[in-house]
Amino acid sequence: MNEFQDQLLTLGDVQDLDRRIDDLRREQAEIPKKLEVIRERIVAAESKYKKRKERLEELDKSRLAKERELEEYEARLVKDNKKLESVANDDIYQKLVKEIAQIKAANDARSDDILILMDKIETEQLGLRKDKAHLDEAKAAIESEARPLKNRLDAIPGETAKYQAERDKMVEGLDRNMMRKYDGLRAQKKGIAIVRVAGRNCGGCNMALSPMLVNKVQRAESMESCPNCGRILYWDEEVRTNPGATPPPPATNA
Ligand SMILES: [Zn+2]
Predict the structure, then answer these.
(1) How far is the CA of 163 from the centre of ligand 1 (A)?
(2) DSSP secondary structure string, 139-194?
(3) Alpha carbon of 116 to those of 42, 60, 112, 225: distances in Å?
């Protein structure tokens, strides 16, 4: 193995670390979003519970008001019925009879209203119990879902720094021009700048390479790129001769 090939292999390892660091950064950016979703779930459940509770209180107030009204008019009926016994004037008597009939009809309607309200209250009470369970569930999610996410978020910077230090050390001996090309390609090619030749194909875009190019890559005397995707190509003898060795990184896009 010549020195240049050694550099290319090291660059491949640098890329593995860079991709791991990229993954960690993505994870780090995703976690706050996931935490926000959990928080929103609690806020929504809390708001639903509160609104229903208010509705229930309103219904209860209406029921109480109606019951009081009914009581009032029931008392009035008792009074009117008593009055009826002592009235001598026929006109007044007829008027009173009419009034009693009206109050009775109105009280029947009041009783119906109260029944309807009680029915609604019962439904809302059932709903409120469900809303409460839902709210408790959302709150419990803080323990079961948010806690591990927060712990992970705390651990990521340390992990990233470890890989970063490893990477920085690896990069020290690498050719500056090669690094510049690598950095530029990584930015353009979604994180994959250097790829192994797999069989006769580019490990990045899978295009078949000419035998001459494959030969050049194997000799590793100059930096060779895939004519299709532009990625730096290298030959990894170890992978070729030892199938148990690290497989080529999966290249997802050309
Ligand atoms: Zn390619």
Answers:
(1) 27
(2) HHHIIIIIHHHHHHHHHHHHHHHHHHHHHHHHHTTS-HHHHHHHHHHHHHTTT--E
(3) 32, 12, 6, 80
How far is ligand 1, taken at its centre, from the CA of residue 67, in Å? 83
Ligand 1 mean position, distance from CA 192 (Å): 11
* 190 located within any domain: yes
Q: Are residues 114 and 166 in the same domain?
A: yes
- Does the predicted TM-score (pTM) go above 0.70? yes
**Last residue of one domain, picked from the residues 122, 137, 171:** 171
Any domain includes 252: no
Average pLDDT by consecutive 10-residue portion of the chain (254 residues)? Answer: 89 96 97 95 96 98 98 96 92 94 97 98 98 94 92 98 97 94 96 94 96 95 95 81 52 50
Shared-domain flag, residues 75 and 156: yes
CA 182 / ligand 1 centre spacing (Å): 14
Per-residue confidence (pLDDT) for residue 254, from 0 to 100: 46
Domain co-membership, 72 together with 101: yes
Q: For residue 202, what are the domain limits?
A: 176-241
For ligand 1, a single-atom ion, which residues have Cβ within 5 Å?
A: 202, 204-205, 226, 228-229
How many Å lie between the centroid of ligand 1 and the Cα of residue 251? 10
